[in-house]
Design a protein that fits this description.
Blueprint: E1 12-17, E2 30-32, H1 43-53, E3 67-72, H2 75-86, E4 91-94, H3 108-116, E5 121-124, E6 133-138, H4 144-158, E7 161-168, H5 184-196, E8 205-209, H6 212-223, E9 227-232, H7 246-253, E10 257-262
Parallel strand pairs: 1-3, 4-5, 6-7, 6-9, 7-8, 9-10
Antiparallel strand pairs: 2-3, 5-10
Helix pairs in contact: 2-3, 4-5, 6-7
Length: about 260
């Protein structure tokens, strides 16, 4: 689904099913209501989606007729394949509820998609039905500007309030007196946030210090955003999260919807 404000929205609802045991359907086969690639009855899927969406429009009051598609194969592969085929602006996936047996909120399919895809991905837990508050987490690299710009576009699309956060790393030598905050990287970020906010509702950069994973999650627990926007590098082993992988830890543990910007 594209998020561009000046173009019509093309929406595809995709279901991936395993290849039949008798092997009469090859992996990668796609049946869709669009383009004559195959004929399927998308009525049930479309009715379910519209019931979830409610009366709100998808594209500025103009009705959108979604494409309904069924792909055969492994979900994490087929979702990425169709996203590339359609040249989508956004992939939308669900996030499973947190349980004692599953304290992290990402399943195998979602993990595979975000590792494989060059497209932004929006992960939505069942309890999120509206996005009114957006938090963007920024690091001190030049890539932060790209993440900030995408966060502004998302907030504008949802007519949501945007907040920005960066976390200064802990000092290596705890015996050294703390440096005054903010440091140069945060000053540059604050300047970029201010420039990007001109002509729009003001967005200020909040600066915290400590472990970036812990601080961003703590900020989410306090401010309760509906959506967290982060930069994300593709690749990495499946279901293995290193303690220093900031984006991956945030994606797995954030108690809200998460929007990943590919870096």
């Amino acid at each position: 689904m594209a998020l561009t404000a000046d173009s019509p929205v093309h929406l595809t609802i995709l279901k991936v099913v395993p290849v039949p045991a008798k092997g009469d359907v090859p992996a990668g086969r796609l049946l869709t209501t669009e383009g004559g690639q195959g004929l399927i009855d998308g009525g049930a899927e479309l009715a379910q989606f519209e019931a979830w969406l409610g009366p709100e429009s998808l594209n500025g009051g103009r009705r959108v007729t979604p494409e309904v598609a069924v792909a055969f194969g492994i979900p994490g592969i087929e979702i990425s394949r169709l996203a590339d085929l359609r040249g989508v602006g956004l992939i939308v996936l669900g996030r499973r509820p947190r349980t004692p047996d599953h304290p992290l909120l990402l399943g195998e399919t979602a993990d595979a998609v975000v590792r494989r895809s060059d497209h932004p991905v929006l992960f939505v837990p069942p309890e999120v039905s509206r996005i009114d508050r957006v938090l963007v987490a920024l690091d001190g690299t030049d890539r932060a500007v790209r993440v900030l710009e995408r966060a502004h576009a998302v907030a504008q699309r949802f007519n949501a309030k945007l907040r920005a956060l960066t976390v200064e790393p802990d000092l290596v030598d705890e015996r050294t007196p703390p440096a005054p905050m903010p440091r140069a990287r945060s000053v540059r970020l604050a300047d970029a946030v201010g420039r990007r906010s001109k002509g729009q509702p003001e967005v200020r950069l909040e600066v915290r210090q400590g472990n970036p994973i812990h601080e961003v999650l703590a900020h989410c627990s306090t401010t309760k955003p509906d959506l967290l926007v982060i930069g994300y590098r593709r690749g990495g082993p499946p279901k293995v999260i290193g303690p220093t992988e900031i984006a991956r830890n945030l994606l797995y543990a954030a108690p809200c919807a998460v929007y990943t910007v590919p870096l």
